[in-house]
Amino acid sequence: xxxxxxxxxxxxxxxxxxxxxxxxxxxxxxxxxxxxxxxxxxxxxxxxxxxxxxxxxxxxxxxxxxxxxxxxxxxxxxxxxxxxxxxxxxxxxxxxxxxxxxxxxxxxxxxxxxxxxxxxxxxxxxxxxxxxxxxxxxxxxxxxxxxxxxxxxxxxxxxxxxxxxxxxxxxxxxxxxxxxxxxxxxxxxxxxxxxxxxxxxxxxxxxxxxxxxxxxxxxxxxxxxxxxxxxxxxxxxxxxxxxxxxxxxxxxxxxxxxxxxxxxxxxxxxx
Length: 271
Description:
CATH architecture of the largest domain: 3-Layer(aba) Sandwich
Strand order of the largest sheet: 5-6-8-9-10-7
Low-confidence stretches: none
Largest sheet: 6 strands, mixed
Order of helices and strands: HEEHEHEHHEEHEEHEHEHE
Strand content: 15-25%
Number of domains: 2
Helix content: 25-40%
Oligomer: single chain
Radius of gyration: 19 Å
């Protein structure tokens, strides 16, 4: 029995309601006709030429991404030539593009839940709403206590391979029991994290001054990882939910790394 794109979208918006997305976000259908039958589904963090070409090569006409194609201040106004080229390629190849962004950050079984699951931690609440599992970020307790260095190495082991590396701030021998996480850019949550009873905070895209100010006012350790890698883990959750709802669909998680960095070289190391 075939499945239409609109049926898949209905299921997605039941799991990740559009009204849970942040006001500034542009989630949902990007381009394409949702009334057509699905020939295959490719799941990715980003929409790039490599991702779209992979969809064509495997015969998938639906690409579901975490990140929208464009987050221009004026919706519908394309400001970058490469975005126009990607849209042209999608239309020419009859691809349907759909994104689940901050609604997947805020809903249950979302991006931060996937990180907690991968770490072997039990979510207690969200960072923005500590008493509920709805909202941005998650916090909870690890299955066993580890040092900060052991925790960072465990993070490296569960994340997909990438070249952004992992940065750690704090006493490497400190015992870590409770953690907070936020997939993607989580610097804005630092003041809320500082109020939680946690030992470490894992997120991405932490800038120098944000990390420095946090460490001056809090003893909560910081673990900074790849933005792409922190969100890629959630694709397996979405794959699982789609498989349960549509057993014949067989969606594919793209293993293409869309992290923009291709190498990490430690400064001062000439060997």
